[in-house]
Specification:
binds pyridoxal-5'-phosphate, globular, single chain, 2 domains, alpha/beta, Aspartate Aminotransferase, domain 2, Aspartate Aminotransferase, domain 1, 12 strands
């Protein structure tokens, strides 16, 4: 029987397909060591690091099952608290709180701390999980133009909200550029606003201790809420809050994604903990990766590609046209290179791109192969 709801759903999928915007979950790429993987966020290749894997196995002590309840009901293993202690030290924060993912952290933090009378000022290119958290909170959302401090100041000045939060990604996930954190902190002071940053793509990469852009910019102490993920450079799973003990207590009492969801399995936390300890002991890895990314960007520019404002390991290669972005990604895949096409609505209209996610596993030979493939594409497509 045809129901109106399924008719609409089917129609919408057809429309997306016709516009080359249909999303699909790809098949696993297989384990061929010959493939060049520029599609993961395991920036420091810790998923393939023997020391981290061995330490994770030791910490997990053979426990493969889950946490068996929400963390507020029961902590099956002491590892979650240990990881929170490690994260708080790394971030030089009063406290840290573990969530089940970066997504869960963003929605849990924003839903908990903001109310209908809070004004939230968000960069237009912030991650979707930030927007979803703001929606859940019911707060009034004002989006400022990407990294545009004059626009942010204008919106703050025009707002009569009694409480204000500025929220920004520190490294933007699809553009690979950095937020001007020192300017944001200054603007926040002028307008009595609290600052929240999402360090998902900066954690492990930026700053002398690898703790993120807040550290690199010298403003960590002035940022009230530092959120991060354990799913990118850490190569595990989980999200976290780093900030004051007061805010941690509040989140434990109000974050619905924390309270009403089963905690992470000990085996996952064991990997996270082993990886974070490894990163803290090897803080130079991020700088090595950034140097490789700079060299790769130079070569893309040499071929005439636009990498937007990227200054990090995330290197977009602008294609603009949605169908052409898909075609380039498929062309690269045939040459053994995995690099996704990213299209609207994940990025703004007419800015479809290949998102090259550079990692320490990317060798000079692989770089040569990727640049050769892109040169061939250019010569065939003008
Ligand atoms: C900026 C940003 N924040 C949050 C998330 C969500 O993190 P996770 O994948 O750990 O849920 C992501 C990942 O997609 C992200 O890019």
């Amino acid at each position: 029987m045809s129901l109106p709801i399924f008719d609409r759903i089917s129609r919408e999928l057809d429309e997306r397909r016709a516009l080359h915007l249909l999303r699909a979950i790809p098949e696993p790429p297989g384990t061929s060591p010959k493939r060049i993987d520029l599609a993961t966020n395991s920036y420091l290749a810790l998923h393939d690091n023997a020391a981290v894997t061995a330490e994770a196995g030791r910490l997990a002590a053979g426990v493969a099952y889950g946490n068996l309840a929400s963390r507020l009901i029961r902590n099956t293993s002491p590892l979650a608290r240990e990881l929170e202690g490690e994260l708080a030290q790394w971030k030089n924060a009063g406290a840290a709180l573990l969530f089940n993912s970066g997504y869960a952290a963003n929605i849990g933090i924003l839903q908990a701390i903001a109310t209908r009378s809070t004004g939230i000022f968000a960069d237009r290119l912030n991650h979707a999980s930030i927007i979803d958290g703001i929606r859940l909170s019911g707060a009034k959302l004002a989006r400022y133009r990407h990294n545009d401090m004059a626009d942010l100041a204008r919106l703050l000045a025009a707002s009569a909200a009694p409480e204000k939060i500025i929220v920004t990604d520190t490294v933007f996930s699809m553009d690979g550029d950095r937020a001007p954190l020192a300017d944001i902190v200054e603007c926040a002071k002028k307008h009595n606003a609290c600052v929240m940053v999402d360090e998902a793509h900066a954690t492990g990469i930026l700053g002398a201790n690898g703790s993120g852009l807040a550290e690199e910019s010298g403003v960590a102490a002035a940022i009230d809420i530092r959120m991060g993920t354990l799913s990118k450079a850490v190569a595990g799973l989980g999200g976290f809050f780093a900030g004051s003990a007061l805010l941690r207590d509040y989140l434990v009492n109000h974050s619905r994604s924390l309270i009403y969801s089963t905690g992470l399995p000990a085996s996952v936390i064991a990997f996270d903990l082993a990886a974070v300890r490894y990163l803290r002991a090897n803080p130079q890895l991020g700088a090595t990766l950034l140097a490789r990314a700079a060299s790769f960007r130079d070569k893309l520019h040499g071929l005439g590609f636009d990498t937007l404002a990227s200054t990090t390991q995330i290197v977009p290669c602008l294609v603009s046209d949605d169908a052409e972005a898909l075609a380039l990604s498929a062309f690269l895949a045939r040459r053994g290179i995995d690099a996704p096409a990213v299209r609207p609505p994940t990025v703004p209209p007419h800015t479809a791109r290949i998102r090259f996610s550079l990692t320490l596993a990317f060798t000079p030979d692989q770089e040569t192969a990727v640049i050769a493939a892109l040169a061939d594409w250019k010569s065939g497509h003008g």
